[in-house]
Amino acid sequence: MPPMDEIDPARAKRQQQLEALERKQLHKAERAARGPGAWRTWVLPVLKLAVAAAIAIALVKLAFFPAAEEAAAEDPMAGAMFAEPTAAVSRGSIENAVSLDGTVVPVEAVPIRSTQTGTVARVFAADGVVVEEGAVLYTVRVESQPEPDEEGNLSEPTFAIWNVRAPAAGTLTGFTLLQGQSVELAGETGAVQPPQHLVQASVGASDQYRLSTQPESAMVTIDSGPAPFECTDVAIRQPSGEEIGTGATATLQCTVPDGVRVFVGLSADVELAAGSAEDVLVLPTTAVLGSADVGIAYRPTIAADGTAGEPEEVRLELGLSDGTAVEVRSGLAEGDEVLQFVPGAADPCADPATADPVLCGF
């Protein structure tokens, strides 16, 4: 073996590098044999999930749950329930128009009644045929037995022919008479269905109170139909007989003008002009108990200790109403303040999602 000072330095350096590489590979093999360990297997993944969950929760809170101070500032009704809001009597105009949901219906059929008791001698029309008013539909053969003479002898019976005419113009319905058929006086032998149509709508109690006078016409609009047209001969029929027990409401009917093409069953919007008033005293309907003739408003009062006292009841004479405001004819003067909402009544402005922006002043 050569002396140490004679060993090649380059060779010694390569030997050291080989030994270091062997030690590094041996260390990796030992780690692989031991496995990843608890830190890599459990602790690190759990920490990553926790951090991700915290970030997600923070984002959700920022997006959907603003700070309490910001929510209170954005809420238009914040603090509205801590003080009794008031409304002042002011001057304004009221256009009282009542809107109803209607339906196109046919005019009621006119029954055909026999004018005599006898047998049908001849039939001149058939079911489903269009006839004119006054047209002869059938004839009735009436047999008459004369009185016996002084000697008690009976004469031959006599016969007369009577015409039964159409009571109206239209289409015959249920007209199934046969020659030789017996008919009775005033007995129904069919009907005539006129070609005219009506618009019919239910009228509730609140709408009837708004109709201080019965209008003579109404403006009718049919969706996807002709232009709005004036429906004449307005009539309101109150329920009667068995209808009263069923809770039926009043029914409005008006006549569709000739020349306006409509069909049975079409939906229609019916608007009735029920009067107007200009430069009159008005209050919001929420401030008045009652909506027609007589109402009650509540004036706020102050107790001796400076706190709000029991509201004072004020009786009013009411006029027209458009559903949002009501005319005050007597009981209050311009500028008088009353509670904006009748005590005990549900606040229609409590929920901004369903409140009327005009009524609540949003």
Describe it.
With 362 residues, the chain is an alpha+beta fold. The chain has four domains: 13-64, no CATH class; 100-106 and 196-274, Beta Barrel (Elongation Factor Tu (Ef-tu), domain 3), CATH 2.40.30.170; 110-193, RNA polymerase II/Efflux pump adaptor protein, barrel-sandwich hybrid domain (OB fold (Dihydrolipoamide Acetyltransferase, E2P), Beta Barrel); 279-360, conserved putative lor/sdh protein from methanococcus maripaludis s2 fold, CATH 2.40.420. Helix content is 21%, strand content 36%. The chain has six helices and 19 strands. It has helices spanning 9-34, 37-64, 68-74, 205-210, 242-245, 357-360, and strands at residues 86-88, 90-106, 110-113, 118-123, 130-131, 136-144, 158-165, 170-173, 182-183, 188-193, 197-203, 218-222, 229-237, 250-255, 267-284, 294-299, 312-321, 325-330, 337-339. Strands 2-11-14-13-12-15 form a six-stranded antiparallel barrel. It has a four-stranded antiparallel sheet with strand order 3-10-8-5, with no helix packed on it. The protein has a four-stranded antiparallel sheet with strand order 7-6-4-9, with no helix packed on it. A hairpin with a 6-residue loop joins β12 (218-222) and β13.
